[in-house]
Amino acid sequence: MPAPEYVRVKQPETGHEFSMVASAAAAAGLTPLDKPATKSDGTPLPPKHHLPLGERSPGAKKPLPTKGREADTKAEKAEPEKEAQS
Q1: What angle do CA 50, 56, 57 make, to 5 degrees?
Q2: Cα separation, 32 vs 19, whole angstroms
Q3: How far is CA 71 from CA 13, 44, 46, in A?
Q4: Cα-based distances in Å from 33 to 9, 29, 56, 78
Q5: Measured between alpha carbons, how far apart are the two ends of the chain, in Å?
Q6: Rounded to whole angstroms, how far apart are CA atoms 25 and 78?
Q7: Dihedral of alpha carbons 11, 16, 22, 24, sign
């Protein structure tokens, strides 16, 4: 039995990119992207999750800096230097 042909597709609702069997992509109405869908050994590439600009992944520890936080960020960076000098 031959190995299935994989294509890279983009989910329109979320913007996520992932690899799937070409026949399943066609049945789902997804258009293949002009990108590799598999690694050199033939296994599918992992999904690439789309995050809109300004959002962080669920596991992120610090919030993204905003214009109002620039001064706070500079102060946070200066604090460890003060402790090291003491």
Answers
A1: 65
A2: 9
A3: 37, 44, 38
A4: 5, 13, 25, 46
A5: 70
A6: 52
A7: negative
In a domain, 8, yes or no: yes
Residue 70 lies in a domain: no
- pLDDT tens-digit map of 40-78: 999 999 999 988 777 666 666 666 666 655 555 555 555
Alpha helices (H) along 1-86: 22-28, 70-85
- Domain interval for residue 36: 1-50
* Rg, the chain, Cα only: 22
On whether the pTM is more than 0.90, the answer is: no
